[in-house]
Design brief:
By secondary structure, the chain is an alpha/beta fold. Helices cover 32% and strands 24% of the residues. The structure holds dihydropyrimidine-2,4(1H,3H)-dione and zinc ion.
């Protein structure tokens, strides 16, 4: 007899490896058994009927910026509101980018991020560490963070004012991380190109948001990806490109992967759904869509969808970095922006990713297994969380989404829980939405609404990263 607290019966279990009709038994915080439908008729725990529903692992979002200072403003979701919204959309784990700013030790950066999250998160969370300089040997930094359960690092190839590091730093962190089972995430935009084009635009008074996109062209991204790949090859280390946005950069990734290098890339729903046309309207509306890399022309999205289906892009994450319209209008200075360089960059998305990617399953262009893989399993594997997260298996955390494929939901700001007053997808009605979401056995969302108090989420100390 199976003892346990809850069983999800009669659902269609979708894993990255296949689909089966099965009942999922949960005992406390873990999955205790997965059995053929109708097993264990004398089970005494709570029963959830998932007839007609998909049962998938809780989704894992490995790219969020919660409660992050950006100029005079900060990202609009903190760990309470952001993770609550994530849960409503079927995400049960987030990895947020802790940052050690210049003049600060990595230990200080980590303490700051723990303080933001501690006791506030609705779902489980971990951190990458963004490095903005090296004040100690890279080996020591990587060892220190690994011991603290942070086994991935982020480096920026742009944003010279606060975040960018030199190629020397990138090379040494790649080597130290690779040697120690850690993964380096790179923001790939070639800053020399961006800086030159920015100067050119501003010197001729081209200040509107559309020039933001013009100054960060696909080639700048592709060149940086190629440079990153060369450095990773020299270090003999894996490397992960964050928020890949263009067909040009994807072509570089594909070449490197086909040459046998362990080189991974994520894209985000904004690059799959939205295009640079959003920069054409009223400047204050266009500012909502300012992000880096910027939105591209529509043919790039088509290539990215293809890359996702074929597995050249391993992960869909969100780069959730929301700002209200007021914050966008106030700009980085807090007193209004005079040109596109003064607009805080980022879009909301922590709640809408799983359903947005599912639309390609509805259209028959992505298999259900690939959907689960890119949103749940591959990110857990790459970032040292598997099989605890991203899998429906005995012993895994009971992070489970009962996904109703028949539900229709307009992605309007008032139906969502992110702390923003607009939705980038307000013209989209998705088919399919999470009906029930469990994180470590506890219901954290039902019918798209939060359940329970924030604080259930725990810090995830992660194992080796960098392998699929
Ligand atoms: N780009 C954004 O648009 N926002 C957050 C960080 C980043 O790199
Ligand atoms: Zn980001």
């Amino acid at each position: 007899m199976i003892s346990g607290s809850l069983v999800i019966r009669n659902g269609t279990v979708v894993r990255s490896t296949g689909i089966e009709a099965a009942d999922v038994f949960i005992d406390g915080e873990r999955i205790s058994s997965v059995e053929p439908p109708g097993s264990e008729t004398d089970f005494r725990g709570e029963v959830v009927d998932a007839s007609g529903k998909l049962v998938i692992p809780g989704a894992v979002d490995v790219h969020t910026h919660l409660d992050m200072e950006v100029g005079a403003t900060r990202s609009a979701d903190d760990f309470a509101s952001g993770t609550r919204a994530a849960a409503c959309g079927g995400t049960t784990t987030v990895l947020d980018f802790a940052t050690a700013y210049r003049g600060e030790s990595v230990a200080q950066g980590l303490v700051t991020w723990h303080a933001k999250a501690e006791g506030r998160a609705a779902i489980d969370y971990g951190f990458h560490m963004s490095l903005t300089e090296l004040t100690a040997p890279a080996e020591d930094v990587v060892d220190e963070m690994s011991e603290a359960g942070v086994t991935s690092f982020k480096l920026y190839m742009t944003y010279p004012e606060r975040l960018m590091v030199s190629d020397d730093v990138i090379a040494s962190v790649l080597k130290a991380a690779g040697d120690r089972g850690c993964l380096v995430c790179l923001h790939c935009e070639d800053d020399a190109t961006v800086a030159r084009l920015r100067r050119e635009a501003l010197s001729s008074d081209r200040t509107e948001p559309r020039w933001h996109a013009w100054s960060r062209p696909p080639r700048a991204e592709a060149d940086a990806v190629a440079r990153a790949a060369r450095m990773a090859a020299e270090a003999q280390s894996a490397c992960y490109v964050v928020h890949l946005s263009s067909a040009d950069a994807l072509a570089e990734v594909r070449n490197v992967q086909e040459a046998g290098q362990p080189f991974f890339a994520e894209t985000c729903p904004q690059y799959l759904y939205l295009s640079a046309e959003r920069y054409e309207g009223l400047a204050s509306e266009a500012a909502r869509f300012v992000c880096a890399p910027p939105l591209r022309d529509p043919q790039h999205s088509e290539e990215l969808w293809e890359g996702l289906a074929r597995g050249h892009l391993q992960v869909v994450a969100t780069d959730h970095c929301p700002f209200t319209q007021t914050d966008k209008d106030r700009g980085l200075s807090g007193e209004g922006w005079a040109d596109f360089t003064g607009i805080p960059g980022g879009l909301p998305g922590i709640e809408t990713r799983l359903a947005l990617i599912y639309q390609q399953v509805v259209e028959g262009r992505l298999s259900p297994e690939a959907w689960v893989d890119r949103c749940c399993t591959a990110p857990a594997k790459l970032f040292g969380l598997y099989p605890r997260k991203g899998e429906l298996a005995v012993g895994s955390d009971a992070d489970v989404v009962v996904f109703d494929p028949a539900q229709e939901r307009p992605l309007l700001a008032e139906r969502l829980h992110m702390n923003v007053d607009y939705s980038p997808y307000e013209d989209v009605v998705v088919r399919g939405w999470p009906e029930l979401v469990l994180c470590r056995g506890r219901i954290v969302a039902r019918a798209g609404e939060p359940v329970g108090e924030p604080g259930w989420g725990r810090f995830l100390s992660r194992g080796p990263s960098g392998n699929l």
